[in-house]
Amino acid sequence: MNNLRPTRTYVSSAILWLYSSFTLFVLGYMTYQSFRSKKELLSNTFGWPDVFGFANLKKLFAEADFLRYLFNSAWILIATLAAIIMLSSMVAYGIGKYRFRLKGAVLIYFLIGLMFPVQLGIVPIFLLIRDMGLLNSQWGVALVLASGLSMPVFLLTTFFEKLPNDLYESAKIDGAGEWTTFIRVMFPLASPVIFSICIIMSVQIWNQFFVPLIMLQSEDNKTIPLMIMKFTNNLMYNIDLAMVGSVMATVPILILFFLFSGKVLEGVASGGVKG
């Protein structure tokens, strides 16, 4: 059996390398095509370009009003992350540091949240957001996305459970109340986990398509994924904008994730095995 483990490791590594290589090829090819004119994209798709420049990028900012979509996406991202971190840290601290009845049921509740996507409950969610007067509002999108607390709560709960009680007792001896203990002692200690949650959730929120599609009708409030959908609806006419828009939507967030991938792994490990 021991001889099979290296073989399985090599097979798994080979599959991951193939998948990663294919993904990088697609991203590189998309980036390459974004520098080409629409005429060459349609008539000389796989050939070497005669014109290679930033005309598509300039067109994206000048004609497609990319900054407006960028601002909308960034605003929803910041508002959602702030709500997720605030709510999940307080919930996880309460679950991790206190003993109470039905504690296991509360954890199961968040576990169920990991199993069911938002699409399954979109009808009641839509009606609720409409009745709150937040339909076609970025506040409504941020509120729906901020309800995805399951993964952050699990990571932070594990972290707070593993923290030594001496820290909590020392804060109490110094006269700190519950809120002060949480804000000044416990929350800063959880910063590696919180940083990892921010990076992981940022990728999901930035690329979110379904919730903004349902909640936002006005063009002034739409996000970058909806802008790309608008281009792809008439792809032959907007293929140049679709290419450069996809690059601007995908590559920056991937670079951010790659740069901080070490911090992400460190934070996840802290949330899982810190003792």
TrEMBL record:
InterPro entries: MetI-like, MetI-like_sf. PROSITE patterns: ABC_TM1 (PS50928). It is a multi-pass membrane protein. The keyword Transport applies. One of its GO terms (cellular component) is plasma membrane. It comes from Cohnella herbarum. Residues 70-260 form the ABC transmembrane type-1 domain. Keywords: Cell membrane, Membrane, Transmembrane, Transmembrane helix, Transport. The chain crosses the membrane at residues 14-32, 69-95, 107-129, 141-160, 237-260. This is Carbohydrate ABC transporter permease. One of its GO terms (biological process) is transmembrane transport. Belongs to the binding-protein-dependent transport system permease family. It is found in: Cell membrane.
